Input
Amino acid sequence: MNQHYYAGTGRRKTAVARVRLYPGTGAVVINGKPMEEIFNRPAHQSLVLKPLQVISQSDKFNAQVKVEGGGISAWAGAVAHGIARALLVMDENLRKPLRDNGLLTRDSRVKERKKYGLKRARKAPQYTKR
Output
């Protein structure tokens, strides 16, 4: 593809999505497969398409995405973040509607590290009095 595109990088947990937005019909291709093949949950599909629906242009762009790291939910969040950033590169006036829907904010929640003396990040061994 030698067409002009708008690029954006999205992140969520340990997932990183590199997004390219092309003028098109609304097809979203993730790692070479259609979006429906990767995200079979409707909640994930709607999250991915939310930035385009907010600006009501979901059928005006094709998205080509490469995602790595993390799991499926993190992928969906990273792709949505990347699409929102790519839309911002295209038109700076979209900043307000995208920010009002929380699509430009990087979700900073990541897995907490395990602490010594504990079984997990916060779960302590069972206390026995006697």
The CA atoms of residues 118 and 125 lie 6 Å apart.
